[in-house]
Amino acid sequence: MSKIKENPMPELGEFLPQLNILRLFADSFVGEKMNCLGGGFPKLRVSKLWMLETLKEWIVEEGAMPELEELEIRGCEKLEKSQGLERLSHLKELTLTNMKREFVEDVKQNLASVGRSHILLTNKFKSATTLACKSSLLLLLLFYFFFFFFFTWKISIYNYVSYLSFSLLDKTRMSEFHIRLLIRAPLFFVLE
Q: 89, exposed or middle or buried, with CB in 10 Å at 0-12, 13-18, 19+?
């Protein structure tokens, strides 16, 4: 984790003019205010701000990120203020995940005030409890799936091989079905 405290956007926008995708993930920025300067990020199309837990204010100045089409802000729980999203003329999709309802309503109002309400705005809110329950359930299902198919398959092959061995000793119990299975038996061992 880089844990940058100073606003990284002026330097990134200036030194990486060809940048197409910018992702700032958890703890990559630990400051409270981020400012995208005019003329910065001229080729940026996608930007993702995920779990920047200390970010309180994000400002997009006139002329910043002129080609931005997709913006996702996820889990920035302290973000209260965003200025300039309405200036992003090419913005087509805005996804807000686990954001305060007040913040989402403010963004909607700002976009609507300049006639940009046609932007696809998605707000997904998932509580930590819901996410924990879903992930626990998924792990439990994966465990049962693994147990059922792996161990049941191994046991059935073991029983099958044991039965074949017994049948070979007692040739009177061999049938055409057993002979066909015996011919296919080496394939089971190759699959292991």
A: exposed
Nearest to 34 by CA among 1, 76, 67, 94: 76
Number of domains in the chain: 2
For residue 105, tell me if it sits in a domain. Answer: yes
Q: Which domain holds residue 161?
A: 132-191
pLDDT along the chain (192 residues), means of 10: 88 93 93 95 96 95 95 93 91 90 89 80 62 62 62 54 49 48 44 42
Instruction: Write the pLDDT tens digit of every residue in 131-146.
Output: 555 666 666 666 666 6
Are 121 and 140 in a shared domain? no
Would you say 77 and 101 are in contact if contact means Cβ atoms under 8 Å apart?
Answer: no
Query: Do 160 and 92 share a structural domain?
Result: no
